[in-house]
Structure formats: C-alpha cells, structure tokens
Amino acid sequence: MDGDLDRALRFMATMEDALATRRLDLPFGTALFNDGLPRVWYQNFVRVERDAPLAEVLADTERVMAAADLDHRKVEVRLDELGARYAPESPWDVSRLVVMEHRGEPPPLDVRAEEVDGHALIEKWQAGIRASPTHDGSEETVRQLVEAQLHRETATSVRYFSARADGRWVTECSLFSDGRTAQVESVETLEAYRGRGLARAVVGRAVAEAYSAGHDYVFLLADQDDWPKELYRRLGFEVVGRVWELLRKPQP
Question: Is there a contact between 203 and 235 (Cβ–Cβ < 8 Å)?
Fold first, then answer.
C-alpha cells in the first residue's frame, strides 16, 4: 500500500472512531455506530480492514446492523484489491471512491470564497439534503444529517468555506485537520448555482488555508464515476488509491 494512501486511510479511520458512540470488533474489521443518529449512514457502518469472504462480511453486517435496529446496511472496504473482488459478487449497490492527494501548488485565491461558522450553513445544508435524490422525504432525516455535520467538530478540527449568491450561502466545503494532515470534504453547491466556479473557489480556499496553517498533506475523496474528480485534478489533486462502498438502502 502506498505510504501516503495509508496516511489518508488512518486519518479517516481515526475520525470515524472518534465519532462513534459504540464500536464492535469483527473478525475482518470494525462495526461503528452512532446510536443517536441512526439515519446517518456514514456514521453507522461496517469497516472491512482484513481479507474475508464476501458472504461472511455481508452476513455479519446484516447481523450487527439489524441488532442495532438500523434500516440500511453499509460496508466500507479499505483494501482496493479486496473491494474489486467483492464488487462483481455484491448483491448491494457498489460505489468506487478515489483517494486524491494534493501535489501541486496551492490554487490562486478566489475572493468569493469565505470562511464561515458551521451554524451559518445550516439553511444551505437543509436545502441540499431535501434536494438530494437519495433523500427519503423525512424532516427527521434532515435534522439528523445536519446534526451529524456539526457533530464532526467533536472528532477533529473543522473549518468551513462557502460563497454567497443572491444573498445566501449556496456552496460549501469542509476542511478536517489533525494539525499535519488535512482532508477536504463535503463539497457541494446547490443545483441552481452550479456552473459558476463556486465549488472551485471554496476548494481552492480550503487547500490554500491548509498549507498556510502548516499541513504537509492534503487529500480528499471523490466518486470515481462522477465529474467532480476532474475538477479536483485541475486543482492539483492526483489519485493515489481507492476505497469501496457496498450499500443496501432502507427497504420499502
């Protein structure tokens, strides 16, 4: 495994462990739960860290997540070759995420990007969640996902960057930090304001601020099959590895 990739994966795992209210060791990894936020999939999942047959992984995931009374089932595979082996056999939806590290010069600053307090983004978060094609229409889900955004501040240092249009905050990204390593995350622009370079502006600002604060490693995750990864390439990010997600959405 690439040393830098290992650094990114360790950073993510440390934050996930800190966010969990409960952990359960499994033969092939760890089940993590936030019992107060059961509808937040990324805080309730099984993390595969060692080789095991897919059938065993799915069976144990079903068992522990059913015992937690969760409606979804989610597995994250941190070993690329193992994820690639699971993907063709998985009865659940498969997503491929690329780990991209920043290797270029910090992007030029765009004056539209501003640092903001997380609470200033609540209205924007709510609008984005309600507009998401995966939103279940429940305001309780909106509440939990917004709470989860702010809950991340209990696990690591978080800074938020946004830009205004029509008098409101319409885009955002977060910058997670442990003092040396920084992760750019949660990049999203409300649909009506896309195509204006706002995501580029806030990501560029986050990267510049990370280096200015003394970080020597900056990375992000991107969907391998979606267009934003090309934006990140233009901003100096390069792919160093992949992680895999297996997801069974809540059943009707």
Answer: yes
pLDDT tens for 23-40 read 999 999 999 999 999 999
pLDDT for the residue 3: 58
Ordered domains of the chain (ranges, CATH): 3-97 (no CATH), 114-241 (3.40.630.30)
Tokens for 42? 């990324």
Which residues does 15 contact at the CB level (< 8 Å), separation at least 6?
152, 155, 156, 176
Q: Percent of the chain, pLDDT > 70?
A: 99
Token couple for 31: 């089940």
